[in-house]
């Protein structure tokens, strides 16, 4: 009877503590203790969370363990929240798994003064090296030529482009941050890349949810959540070695890259700049900047083999505007409306950060007729915008026409928000767009993409914060 009494006591206490507050957004019934933790399909979290809107509307709530979250859906709601009331949603929640890794430092998971200073510094340094006098364009195009050489070595036979693309795209961030690139197939670098993939996947798993919901308990239990820490620590050690080498041969009068600039900033003794913050910032730029763009390109390959007629149209436009004797440049974009529309449609359909990153309310906020109190985790569901049938003519079909007017001119669409919006909008948006444009047009200029004989492209995905295609092989024939 003591057991029964304890059980009743715990359940009653849980019920009283975790009742959905009166003016709070509605949502599915939460179970005792675990809430809605097990009602989500973590292999397709974004689809699970989008389906809930059918019943509960565009602003709804879920309880993950002991923590309430509110999921925001559709363009109007996201705009009102992230842009119009952006100040209230500028912070990230204090999720135990993320805090263990970043300790509140860096850009992606920091808040307040640290976030403001680190974000501003990262943006201005990327601008200096990326778009200022030391333009990134030659770096990207040079990297493309290495990548093309590697692709050509397969002589049109089937191969998996994943690692080469990862390496190529990461090399652009490496050039910016470390001041050097890594040869394709460099063992240490390959290991680093596989850590990132594995780490992200674990972050999106049920283990991560359990850890964030019950940190004190989970910290003591074995399981994949312990591996995540190990993985991220290995990445940080890798970065520490780079920082040490930079310090060793650093010339403050000639800053070569982001790390050098940061070392100068530390010397000026500005408050939130120190070596530990440097390591986390580099980690963030690397994490956010390599996997995302290379995953988008992997989807691009798949869409081009699935729709050869679209591929041929892109190639014809590039042949006409750029020709074959020079490399494409950003100035060509305005003259390549169809190609530009295809790149946008690839980003929309591949939806690679389907739930953006979590935010938290820093004050009570009114949204969609409900009051969400301070301190509630907010998930901006980008999927609900990128596939909204009220925004797109054919939301589930690959259709470059979404970004073209009847005269074939490129048109911007407000609901195109793969980089999210507001104060936390992707810091690398300009860089990513430049990389995607230059890589994609160069690829189309040099190669024709096809599937190995008898194989059909599989458009299914794997969810791990980002949505990535399943491994596949492709044939690249030189044009
Ligand atoms: C944040 C998407 C490439 C750096 C984000 C967010 C999204 C996103 C959805 C979350 C925004 C939010 O919290 O509401 C993408 C996509 C990319 C891409 C789709 C490529 C196709 C990059 C690149 C960099 C980068 C190349 C490298 C510099 C960051 C950083 C943040 C971020 C540092 C955190 C910003 C903050 O918390 O203030 N990105 N990203 N991203 N991204 Fe990207």
TrEMBL record:
UniProtKB keywords: Heme, Iron, Membrane, Metal-binding, Monooxygenase, Oxidoreductase
MF annotations from Gene Ontology: heme binding; iron ion binding; oxidoreductase activity, acting on paired donors, with incorporation or reduction of molecular oxygen, reduced flavin or flavoprotein as one donor, and incorporation of one atom of oxygen
Domain of life (superkingdom): Eukaryota
Cofactor section: heme
Pfam families, alphabetized: p450
PROSITE patterns xrefs: CYTOCHROME_P450
InterPro entries, alphabetized: Cyt_P450 (IPR001128), Cyt_P450_CS (IPR017972), Cyt_P450_E_grp-I (IPR002401), Cyt_P450_E_grp-I_CYP2D-like (IPR008069), Cyt_P450_sf (IPR036396), Cytochrome_P450_fam2 (IPR050182)
Record-linked SUPFAM superfamilies: Cytochrome P450
Signal peptide: none
Compartments (UniProt record): Membrane
One Gene Ontology cellular component annotation held by this UniProt entry: cytoplasm
UniProt entry tagged with the keyword Protein biosynthesis: no
Primary site of residence: membrane
Protein family per UniProt: Belongs to the cytochrome P450 family.
Protein name (record): Cytochrome P450
């Amino acid at each position: 009877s003591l057991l029964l009494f304890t059980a009743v006591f715990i359940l009653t206490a849980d019920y009283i503590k975790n009742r959905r507050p009166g003016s709070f957004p509605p949502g599915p019934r939460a179970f005792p203790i675990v809430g809605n933790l097990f009602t989500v399909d973590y292999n397709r979290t974004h689809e699970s969370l989008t389906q809930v809107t059918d019943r509960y509307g565009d602003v709804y709530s879920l309880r993950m363990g002991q923590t309430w979250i509110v999921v925001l859906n559709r363009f109007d709601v996201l705009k009102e929240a992230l842009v119009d009331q952006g100040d209230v949603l500028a912070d990230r929640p204090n999720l135990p798994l993320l805090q263990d890794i970043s300790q509140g430092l860096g850009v992606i998971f920091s808040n307040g003064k640290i976030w403001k200073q680190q974000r501003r510094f990262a943006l201005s340094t990327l601008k200096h090296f990326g778009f200022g006098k030391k333009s990134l364009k030659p770096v990207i195009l040079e990297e493309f030529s290495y990548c093309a050489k590697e692709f050509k070595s397969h002589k049109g036979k089937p191969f998996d482009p994943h690692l080469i693309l990862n390496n190529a795209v990461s090399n652009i961030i490496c050039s910016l941050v470390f001041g050097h690139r890594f040869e394709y197939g460099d063992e240490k670098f390959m290991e680093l890349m596989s850590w990132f993939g594995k780490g992200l996947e674990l972050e999106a798993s049920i283990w991560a949810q359990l850890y964030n919901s019950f940190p004190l308990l989970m910290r003591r239990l074995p399981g994949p959540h312990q591996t995540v820490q190990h993985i991220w620590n290995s990445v940080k050690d890798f970065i520490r070695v780079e920082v040490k080498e930079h310090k060793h041969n650093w010339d403050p009068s000639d800053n070569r890259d982001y790390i050098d600039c940061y070392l100068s900033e530390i010397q000026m003794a500005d408050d939130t700049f120190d070596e530990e913050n440097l390591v986390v910032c580099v980690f963030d730029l690397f994490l956010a900047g390599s996997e995302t763009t290379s995953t988008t390109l992997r989807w691009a390959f798949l869409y081009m083999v699935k729709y050869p007629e679209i591929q041929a149209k892109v190639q014809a436009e590039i042949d006409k505007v750029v020709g074959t004797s020079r490399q494409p440049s950003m100035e060509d974009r305005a003259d390549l409306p169809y190609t530009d529309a295809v790149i946008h449609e690839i980003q929309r359909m591949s939806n690679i950060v389907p739930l953006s990153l979590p935010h938290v309310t820093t004050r009570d906020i009114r949204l969609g007729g409900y009051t969400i109190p301070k301190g509630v985790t907010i998930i901006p569901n980008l999927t609900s915008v990128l596939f909204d049938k009220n925004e797109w003519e054919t939301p589930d079909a690959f259709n470059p026409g979404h970004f073209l007017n009847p005269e074939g001119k490129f048109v911007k669409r407000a609901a195109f928000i793969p980089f999210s919006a507001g104060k936390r909008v992707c810091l690398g948006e300009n860089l990513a767009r430049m990389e995607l444009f230059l890589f994609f047009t160069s690829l189309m200029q040099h190669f024709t993409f096809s599937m190995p004989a008898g194989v059909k492209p599989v458009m299914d995905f794997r969810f791990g914060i980002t949505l990535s295609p399943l491994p596949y092989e492709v044939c690249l024939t030189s044009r």
